[in-house]
Predict the structure of Arginine N-succinyltransferase.
Amino acid sequence: MLVIRPITAADFPALKRIAIESGPGFTSLPDHDERLGQKIAHAEHSFAAQVNQPGDQGYLFVLEDTSSGDIVGTTGIEAAVGLHTPLYHFQQNTIIHHSAELNVLNQLKTLTLCNDYTGASEICTLFLRESYRRNHAGRFLSKVRFLFMAEHPTRFASKVIAEMRGAADENGIPPFWNWLQKLFLTIDFPTADKLIGVGKKSFIAELMPRHPIYVDLLPQQAQQVIGLVHENTKPALKMLEAEGFRHRGYVDLFDAGPTVEAQLTDIRSVAQSRKVAVKVQEVQGESTLAIANTAVRHFRASFGKGAHYCPEQQLLLLSPAMAEVLQLESGDFARFINLDQR
């Protein structure tokens, strides 16, 4: 059985392996021991804190295979981004150049540096080992964050964002990067990627263009990938779009991948989740349910058919094995969604 729980210091070796496996471009989980240790300590503090509004909290979860004890995935939520270290994007706009005398009207696309998402919550750091990418595990790893947010809404902002990895070539270098490197940064992509990953972002404000950039002046290769996602990221984007996330024109500075957003209460899995009492008994459900307890520091979530919801009694029947993993007893409350519903 797979179970989601808050990360602990003992998970450092597993998190480092995931950081290595995830490869370049996964800036929220860099292969950097000090930064990984900081992220774990920050998460432990965040789960333990008494919070009534979003602030500088980061909730990092790990997916554990209970049969082996192996950590096979990770997923996370930042409560409020950009409060201490600015979160930059390019905003896509259209400006009009008009000459009545010449009867000329030109609509020109631009990119403008901004930090409009300051204070928003961000879902991030989603990674699942390839051998486990089956039987709803990926859907569960994504959606479990919404169960946690639905149960503890005061910990999060009303707006939720997700930054999607942009298009890259066979060497992992974004086509969008080349013009930026040549004109403004003069460092290679792996170096910039590493600096972002370890939290050293001051060079963005110091070196990035401060005025709107006319898209038509960029190389054709760069223009073509603005707002596109990496091939491996398409399933994740499709899943978030089904949850109600939409792209409003904001893209990443370095790979031009889209940032998508949704209102917390409008996210499908938040709105459709149900909180009900639990009764522990032998049961074999027909649907695959994702179920979470209502704790913070001792949060647990799992999925499977060892559960069945009885709408007449408003009870969630849990098998003893599922209840044990979730640390639940009869009379406790749990929150769940149906993973079979697309």
User: Anything to note?
Assistant: The chain has a mean pLDDT of 91. The radius of gyration is 22 Å. The domain at 2-89+114-269 is CATH 3.40.630.30 (Aminopeptidase). The first strand starts at residue 2 and ends at 6.
